[in-house]
Design a protein that fits this description.
Layout (H helix, E strand, L loop, with lengths): L8 H24 L4 H5 L10 H20 L13 H16 L3 H4 L6 E4 L7 E4 H26 L6 H5 L3
Antiparallel strand pairs: 1-2
């Protein structure tokens, strides 16, 4: 049976761990090809899209915020100051530690919990816990992980589907 916990925390952990491995390959690629790492870190798929650094930051943000909101606890805040592969790895490591702190008991059964996004603004949106996870949180997370992967692949980093998926 799929529960909110099994549909969230293990999925976030799997793909964040895979993203960490992809970033390791990107850093090695930059070293091997004598490419300034900032070229990859600031690369984007199109001029109006965020660069790699921001894609990783946002992916980590969704991975920690979705289960936090479902559990009814404050979302840990990060300062978005990463400028290197090492700093992005630290962000992922910290996010994985946050995810390790969740239990199924904190998240399961919260399908009807009201989640309010952007409260008090014209963009305020109220969602149930289930809708928040399945129709908002997971798609946002997958978009940013996929975009980070695509940025690196388009820059010649030799990664494939197995790298994207990670261990499962």
């Amino acid at each position: 049976m799929t529960t909110l916990y099994t549909a969230s925390v293990p999925v976030f952990k799997q793909l964040l761990s895979a993203l960490s491995d992809v970033l390791n390959k990107a850093e090695a690629h930059a070293t091997d090809k004598k490419i300034d790492p900032n070229v990859l870190l600031q690369s984007r798929l199109f001029p109006d899209m965020f660069p790699l650094i921001r894609q990783v930051q946002i992916a980590a943000d969704f991975a920690k915020s979705v289960p936090s909101r479902l559990a009814g606890i404050e979302v840990p805040a990060y300062d978005d100051s990463e400028q290197s592969f090492t700093e992005l790895q630290t962000r992922i490591k910290n996010t994985l530690a946050v995810l390790d702190g969740f239990t199924a008991a904190q998240i399961d059964g919260k399908e009807s919990l009201e989640i309010v996004l952007r409260p008090g603004t014209p963009k305020e949106k109220k969602l149930t816990g289930e809708t928040y996870l399945l129709n908002y949180g997971l798609p946002q997370f997958f978009f940013h992980v996929t975009t980070a992967y695509a940025i690196l692949r388009s820059n010649g980093v030799e990664v494939g589907k197995r790298d994207f998926m990670g261990a499962y």
